Amino acid sequence: MRTRSRRWVLVVVAIFLVVIALIAVEAIRRVAEGSAEQKTDAPFYVPPVPLKAAAPGTIIRSEPIASAPIGSTAWRVLYHSRDLAGADIAVSGVVIVPDGPVPDGGRTVVSWAHPTTGAAARCAPSLGLDPFELIEGLHELLAAGYAIAATDYPGLGVEGASSYLLGIPESNSMLDAARAARALTGTGASDRLLLWGHSQGGQAALFAAERASSYAPELKLEGVAVAAPAANLIALMSDDIVNLSGTTIASFAIPAYEAAYADRYSKDEIDAILTPAGLAATPKMAALCLLTQTKEIHAIADPLVGAYVSSDPATTEPWQTLLKENSAGGQEIDVPIFVGQGLADELVVPSTTEDYVKLLCSQEADVVFHRFPGITHALAADASIPELMLWLAEVDTGHRPNTTC
């Protein structure tokens, strides 16, 4: 009996070592191929000049991504979208699908909206060594058979005006990424759509859900899921402007709002809220990427905490108006909604998300709200995955989960 037990232990250990070795080999392959791809990325992100007009979601160009996770096929895409004013722009992103036969009726598309990476073009997730790193729930979604479309947002990847915390252009790019996935040969993507976003991406996903029926009526939106969403920008700015995170967020948002609202407000009116030191520092911070240049951002932002703005943006015009315009909740959402929130979140504080869920309930929305004790902002999406996958499966079969309300 002991010999048999010992053999069983040895078998388990051997299997474990094989799995670890395979993971290591896969990681080495993806890093090597990702590094090789980075050397040839730049020309892909330069759209034709002039950009020939085309319908939103039309693909400008695409190319396979060799570093796709094992068992999947992926493409880098450049596609048409629309900015705040409705102008035709080029946006970049990635599309990834599981290998294997396409099911009857095609694959449901999950359009993913990433959390903040920065506001400069080179901060695009698709430009990273691992262009799939920020797609939270990637492996679970692929295993469940979904096609994934992941936009970079306007201004990331392709040079152009930043769309940071601008609900309309962010959501346009998210819906148009799903259109691009359908247009791309070999994806098997259907017209069924699910939206999934974290933090900044939560704002984008909620705006996309509010606007999908008017902007992309050919897509059959089934549900929207968000984790620690930047739903209420007035509350977000008021809560965070006194700390390092708020200073960084504001430095990314100010140049984006200057460009987007130039027809309504002068640069001086937008910038009037900044202290002289804040005004001087903003272009420097806005040129940096959050995940790869955190040390450099902190070096600039740390001395400005408490001295970046001269008044609260939430109560100061034109910021009060602009933040309200870019907060979710202006239109009702008529599909099921999933909300995940970490209770240790110090960026999107739990009470703000609680208030947003109350707003959804007042609008008689079908919302499921999950709270995760001890979970911080960065981990909110990962913590949501087990519940999210159950919810997605239910929604994708046409059911409407019981509402928290």
Automatic annotation (TrEMBL):
Stretch forming the signal peptide: none
Q: Name one Pfam family in it.
A: LIP
The family database entries (InterPro entries) matched by this protein are listed as: AB_hydrolase_fold (IPR029058), Lipase_secreted (IPR005152)
Q: Which residues form a coiled coil?
A: none
Lineage, top-rank taxon, reads Bacteria
Sorted alphabetically, which SUPFAM superfamilies does this protein's record hold? alpha/beta-Hydrolases
Q: Could you identify this protein by its name?
A: Lipase
Question: Native species of this protein?
Answer: Microbacterium murale
**Organism classification, top ranks?**
Bacteria, Bacillati, Actinomycetota, Actinomycetes, Micrococcales
